[in-house]
Amino acid sequence: MSFNIGLSGLAAANKALNVTGNNIANVATTGFKSSRAEFADQYAASIRGTSGKTSVGSGVTTAAVSQQFTQGNITSTGQSLDLAINGNGFFVLSDNGSKVYTRSGAFYSDKSGNIVDVSGNNLQGYSADTDGKLQTGVLSNLKIDTSNLAPKATSSISETVNLNSSATTPSVTTFDPANSASYNYTFNTDTYDSQGNLHALNQYFVKNDTDNTWTMYSTIDGVTPNDPGAVPVVPLVNTLSFNSDGTLKDITVPTGSTGWTVKTDGTLALTDWVPAAKAADGTWAGNGAAPSATGITLDLLSTTQYNAASATTSKDQNGYATGELTGLSVDGSGNLFANFTNGQDKVIGQVVMANFANTQGLTPIGGTNWKESFASGVAIIGEPDTGTLGDIKSSSLEDSNVDLTAELVNLIKAQSNYQANAKTISTESTIMQTIIQMT
């Protein structure tokens, strides 16, 4: 019996050495989760046999080798497709249609634009349509669309302007955009047509001391908005009136003039703009592009007349030129953004995560990957940073969770255990030799 007990101890110590050695070997493996050997004692006596008070154990057995799914340190890498999970969950991969799960987030783009790991497994998530709307509910291979972002014609402009209440009527009473003495303040706002061509909305403001109003003259690219070839240039004309506290009262179109159309909500509308280009001879003509289908809405409702320098404190417009892909970024919720040269970001997909009722029941298959099993339960798929799922750190990787110092101590303990069990066998052998010599 003592021989068997000693042999079981040697086997257990050897198993502990193997587990510890594997942990140490993977101390630098991204997303690796350390393991520990768990042992249980053995008894050969029947419950109907001798009393448990006098039973002697028959050695030790390996009850389990369990993995420790504790969080590893997160290290920044600067690579946009390096992803780390902060919290619970696993990335979902497709290995030729078979689902596997990993904590290793070192991903790349293959020649077809698919996001894959080093083994060629496809990262799973929700794809997005051409408008950036996620197709949730159906997992698919995430792919990077490298095509240019189509331009968008400007349909909305918002401006916050203050016009100096202490300003006086200009010395030149006939407005002339080429003569700064004929207006008090001016600025330009970028706008785009359907082909992504840039145009400048020019706005000039002239103070009228007589009735304490301001006249706004508007051109686009310095020409008549609805007739770019017109000579002379005929700007749009609107009158801005203010309340006694300096807030905007209303905007009107002077009698006999053409200006921005005043909508019922107080904003302005331009529906007949003709995008144009300048020819070599200096003339202007339509460039074949179109404005926004709904025209341009100009919001000047935040305009004020205070005793401060005339200034534009903010402005915004929703158009943009054609954009070329410059990079990728991922937010904490797994949204994958394509970044373009025109400053726009577009959602092209969302990384999903999986979790299990019993992560200890997952089956390791190598490559820092696991598969679900009957013991783990089915995968629960969800969006990052929801429920019990962790969030995603982009441009980062999760290090191995191996504690090297602790593993080195475990090596010493396993070695001592091995030597002690070997001594048990050696002692039993000496006793047997003594008995044989007595006979």
Q: Could you walk me through the main structural features you see in this protein, from its secondary elements to its overall organization?
A:
The chain has 439 residues and is mainly beta. It folds into 3 domains: 107 residues, no CATH class; 150 residues, no CATH class; 162 residues, Flagellar hook protein FlgE (Tick-borne Encephalitis virus Glycoprotein, domain 1, Sandwich). Helices cover 13% and strands 35% of the residues. The chain has 2 helices and 31 strands. The strands form 8 sheets. Strands 5, 6, 9, 10, 23, 24, 25, 26, 27, 28 and 29 form an 11-stranded antiparallel sheet that branches. α1 packs antiparallel against α2. The mean pLDDT is 91.
